[in-house]
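G.,

No rush on this.
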Amino acid sequence: MAVIEKAIRSSDLGLNPMNDGKILRVPIPPLTEERRKELVKRLHKVLENHRLAVRNIRREANEAFKKLLKDKKMSEDDEKRALEEVQKLTDEFIEKLEAQGKVKEKEILEMR
């Protein structure tokens, strides 16, 4: 339980868990407008990290295709098609991230 408590404290979510030895209680503060804006900022950081991860995967794939071309294990036409397909997939995944981010941002900012 101590590990879980430490992870929650270090999560940068502003939560302060209470551990009585048997139960771990995590009081969730009410969502004020300021708190909602903080959560949206955090969402944008997470989205940027995911976009960066997708781009890194694209870069690694492109490098692998270029190496195959250099080693003459792939034709130039195949390399071109592969690079286009990787770019298409990259664009598709980034669009999905953006769409999910917009939905989540709307949920966070919505007053209930």
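When you get to it, here's the other one too:
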Amino acid sequence: MKVLVINAGSSSVKYYLYQMPEAQVLAKGAVERVGEPESRLTHSSDGRTYTSQVTVSDVSSAMGLVFDTLVRADIGVIEEILEVGAVGHRVVHGGEEFTGSVIIDEQVIASIEKYAELAPLHNPPNLAGIRAVQRRLPDILQIACFDTAFHATIPKVAYMYALPYELYERYQIRRYGFHGISHRYVAAGPPP
């Protein structure tokens, strides 16, 4: 199975396409400077790197470019985008609700939208990536991996700030911990 991993951010979309279960990287790349007049696509596969100046107005357009690049006759690695069997998304903030990776459905999307208030520069682009996949591959399995999930077991004494408790109750102001996907990798190493 081919798995596409997406990290959609406020100014870039990074991607890896893996052949699973071998975890073989078939292609990787990035669309950088999204929304700026001169964006850049970098795509690597088979030991070669292709770079191009492009115009990409938003995350949705960047995702379209990723899909199109993966199937290009000259630099692509698959014949059609339907060869992708699943898509994983890095999502920055899952609040207290998500303590692990989850299959994306409309309820998960609503929660990611809700937590956009806590991560306004990150969750909206993450959602734009998810929605772009829904439009292009409506029946594909999508998984959300939350940066905050790794830190979900922080004890209350460590995650509460010395602020009035009503700020936590009303606005969920607390220490969440970030970059959890990286921390998990460093702590446990790559998956077997």
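The first helix runs from residue 59 to 70. The chain has a mean pLDDT of 92.

Enjoy the weekend,
O.
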